[in-house]
């Protein structure tokens, strides 16, 4: 890669990070009731309660789609996500957020999400009301290069034991497996 290409990539990554930091995020109270909004960077800095979606993608063979996060991600850079998803924007419905994130990160559109499963993740300064959905997908994937470095299909037990798995997506998968018995 030439120095010009590297410089262009760094500028693009910086502008994506700046845009992401300036997204308005739906804030909630400790009972998951909407109570305002904040810029993403402020939400992270102040450890505000917020909502996030988690979409666990499996194929018809039962393999789970694991994602290697890019190094530019603000939380768990380079980690392994066991679900697509992200924070819910201000005024956005949770299911719509899940559909948006699935389309943005993996290029999966117009699929039926499973029934929502709610959980709470409160660890290391994160205060999240999570909404987990499951989906079966056997088609092609279109990765969002700013967020997803790589994907691979793996048995669920193996995926959950991988080093570097993000703790919130691990909890989401555990909860979904408990409910659906897979």
UniProtKB/TrEMBL annotation:
Q: Which SUPFAM superfamilies match?
A: Nudix
Q: Where does Mg(2+) bind?
A: 101, 105
Which Pfam family, any one of them, does this sequence belong to?
Answer: NUDIX
| Family to which the UniProt record says this protein belongs | Belongs to the Nudix hydrolase family.
Q: Which cofactor does it need?
A: Mg(2+)
Enumerate the spans annotated as Nudix hydrolase domain. Answer: 48-177
Q: Which GO terms describe its molecular function?
A: hydrolase activity, acting on acid anhydrides; metal ion binding
**Which protein is depicted?**
NUDIX domain-containing protein
């Amino acid at each position: 890669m030439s120095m010009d290409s590297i410089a262009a990539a760094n500028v693009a990554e910086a502008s994506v990070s700046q845009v992401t930091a300036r997204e308005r995020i739906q804030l909630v109270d400790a009972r998951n009731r909407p109570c305002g909004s904040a810029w993403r960077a402020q939400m992270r800095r102040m450890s505000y309660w917020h909502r996030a979606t988690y979409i666990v993608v499996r194929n018809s063979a039962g393999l789970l789609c694991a994602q290697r996060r890019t190094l530019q991600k603000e939380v768990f850079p380079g980690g392994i996500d066991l679900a697509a998803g992200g924070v819910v924007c201000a005024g956005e419905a949770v299911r719509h957020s899940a559909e948006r994130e699935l389309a943005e990160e993996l290029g999966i559109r117009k699929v039926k999400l499973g029934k929502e499963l709610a959980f709470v993740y409160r660890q290391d300064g994160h205060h999240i009301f999570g909404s987990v959905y499951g989906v079966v997908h056997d088609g092609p994937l279109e990765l969002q290069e700013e967020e997803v470095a790589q994907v691979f299909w793996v048995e669920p037990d193996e995926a959950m034991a991988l080093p570097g798995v993000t703790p919130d997506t691990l909890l989401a998968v555990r909860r979904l497996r408990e409910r659906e018995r897979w």
